[in-house]
Design a protein that fits this description.
Blueprint: H1 2-16, H2 23-30, H3 34-40, H4 44-67, H5 73-87, H6 95-102, H7 104-131, H8 141-158, H9 162-180, H10 183-193
Helix pairs in contact: 1-4, 4-5, 4-7, 5-7, 5-9, 6-7, 7-8, 8-9, 9-10
Length: 199
Amino acid sequence: MKQKIVLKAKDMFLKLGFKSITMDDIACEMCISKKTIYKYFSNKELLIEESTQEVHKEIFQMIETIVAKNYNSIEENFEIRRTFKEMFKATDTSPIYQLRKHYPVIYKKVISQQVQECESCFRQNIEKGIAQGLYRKELNVENYIKFYYTLIFSINENTSSEKEALKLELEALEYHTRAMATPSGITELEKQLQNPNIL
């Protein structure tokens, strides 16, 4: 039952917002008593924390699945972005923006975990791109990791609309890729940008 509550809460929080959804709403949606929810979670903050952990887990499982498909490094980044777009398409307000605004303590915990995971993903992607001849060999990998996650987190922290955040993330991805790309990388980037499902 606990896991069912977490999964339902996660979906509702992402779709309608962390602030607006109450314990009553979740109980009503699940056709259970609020008392049942409080048996597992003494307050809404604990439920939000577990729900965001679930989102975090799903995101990195999804990234691992995409990486395992052996796309080239640029195609991989665009595939990850497409999957994110699909995952959050029902969301109006950026989840990271909401957390930072309404639940800063939970936000700090989530972000410290995400930064480590993101650094690892970005590093893998850049090293793969260099090996494939799509990114320049002389790149300072650690600096480019910092540049990119600073851009991405800044967009999500400061953009309330999820739709707007996704648009800005696409521009950040193009900017990041152009900064690193070899001529072959630019050709692959242009190919990805032509995809009709990009927005």
